[in-house]
Design goal:
- The structure holds two protein chains of two kinds.
- By secondary structure, chain A is mostly helical.
- Chain A is built from three helices and no strands.
- Chain A has one domain.
- Chain B is about 60% helix and about 5% strand.
- Chain B contains eight helices and two strands, in the order αααββααααα.
- In chain B, β1 and β2 form a beta hairpin.
- Classes of the chains: A mainly alpha, B mainly alpha.
- At the A-B interface, α1 and α2 of A face β2, α6 and α8 of B.
Chain lengths: ~80, ~190
């Protein structure tokens, strides 16, 4: 991140994807995971997946994505 | 504590002041001095907009965002056990926090501000539990004071809704910054 507020473009998309994943993990951790919550998490994961296909994500974020996908998957099985 | 009240404002670095005010609030709370805890926390909240955007270390300029975000997350952790006010309701400090955070000049493409709001969901999730995850001896926190009353739950729901709205709004804006307003928006 640039102190002058620069570093937009691809960087902003990568930051957005990472924050999507952080949000999904937080929601799984603190919220009652119902159908609406799961749908919301899946939407966020789809958005991150799109960025991954465009090769905008770092290796670290991709690993985080896989980990989050697995966590969301567990909730689907429980339902 | 009186010494801290007087001497902390004389410190030049805003982040140091904020850090010390939080430490003082913790000490005050542990000693069951609730009015002093409130005063320290209010002073800390009022410092957030005053935080400079950058600070110089060894003649190099660094963004203060990561430091501020970290301090704000510590603040949120403390708010779990700080009791609400009988006059202003159970979440008046949370509300004050929510009013102060956007007043700092966050870098829109950095995402640190959204990170703070996401952490806030943890605090609100803790408030929703019948018993809070931790307590301070001798301090009646919101779980004891409000006992999950209807008004408390409704107010909490409203807070969660407004924080989620903020998060979605900020994340959508972040997506618009990438690729000049193109796709990747949070269509939630």
């Amino acid at each position: 991140m640039n102190v002058n507020g620069k570093g937009k473009g691809k960087n902003a998309k990568a930051v957005q994807s990472e924050l999507f994943l952080v949000l999904v993990n937080k929601l799984l951790g603190v919220m009652e995971v119902d159908e609406v919550c799961l749908k919301f998490c899946k939407k966020l994961l789809t958005a991150v997946d799109k960025e991954r296909e465009k090769k905008l994500l770092t290796v670290k974020v991709i690993a985080f994505f896989e980990q989050t996908k697995q966590a969301v998957g567990k909730y689907v099985i429980k339902q | 504590m009186a010494f801290c009240h007087i001497s902390i404002p004389s410190i030049e670095s805003v982040s140091d002041r904020l850090h010390l005010l939080l430490q003082c609030a913790i000490v005050a709370l542990q000693n069951n001095c609730l009015p002093q805890t409130d005063t320290f926390l209010k002073a800390a909240i009022s410092l957030v907009p005053e935080m400079p955007l950058t600070e110089e270390v060894d003649y190099k300029k660094f963004s203060t965002e990561p430091k501020l975000a970290s301090l704000l997350c510590s603040f949120l952790g403390l708010l779990v056990v700080v009791p609400g006010s009988p006059e202003h309701g159970p979440f008046y400090l949370v509300q004050g926090f929510l009013n102060a955070v956007p007043r700092f000049g966050w870098n829109e493409s950095g995402g640190a501000e959204v990170g703070v709001y996401i952490e806030m969901l943890g605090l609100l999730g803790a408030f929703a539990q019948r018993s809070l995850p931790y307590h301070v001896d001798g301090v009646d926190s919101n779980d004891t004071l409000y006992g999950g009353s209807k008004e408390y739950c409704e107010e909490l729901d409203e807070l969660v809704e407004s924080v989620m709205k903020l998060i979605v709004e900020k994340l959508t804006k972040l997506g618009e910054l990438g690729e000049g307003g193109g796709g990747g928006e949070c269509e939630c």
